[in-house]
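Suppose a colleague, Dr. K., hands you the sequence of a protein chain of 200 amino acids and asks what its three-dimensional shape might be. Before reaching for any lab equipment, you can write down a predicted structure in token form. Begin with the sequence itself:
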Amino acid sequence: MLALGPLARPDGATLAARERPAPAGGLDGFLAGVERRALVMAELATRNRDDALDLVQDAMLSFVDRYATHDPAEWAPLFHRVMQNRIRDWARRRQVRNRWLVWLRDRDDDEDGPDPIQEAPDPAGRTPEDVLALGVAGETLMAAVEALPLRQQQAFLLRTWEGLDVAQTARAMGCSEGSVKTHLSRAMHALRARLEDHWQ
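The predicted structure, expressed as tokens, is then:
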């Protein structure tokens, strides 16, 4: 039987090899830096802010439980792998739930009236026309990204928005590097075709 020393772990790694110095801010800094982008990814996939918040929170808790002691250089692809798995699980559950419970869906969610927070004046002094002009391009882009199939959406967001390289994206998505390149290429072609009238 193999005797494990005080620094050895059952998986053969030592604590010294697994605990490297964390980036500035440590794990909290990493999570704070990735939180908003993860929320937008989840919102694009779920089209529901509450579901997206739940997914991000669940992904962060799971990430901290399982990967907090890993090398900080591995945190980004590991976190996005956890996040993408949560999104895929949500999509599967939703598909099954909708198949059987379609007749129970509430068709009218806007019965409460306008939100007073959204009706408050802009403290920056922008007019509604200014906000509308600034938001049209962004909304068009977000709608185009939302319309992409889930795997293409994941590849596009992880590569272009998160800045992960092909290998990290493949690890986060749980697929080969060739699949990442294919999904990204298809996403880029679809976005160019859809947005050619807006950006030239």
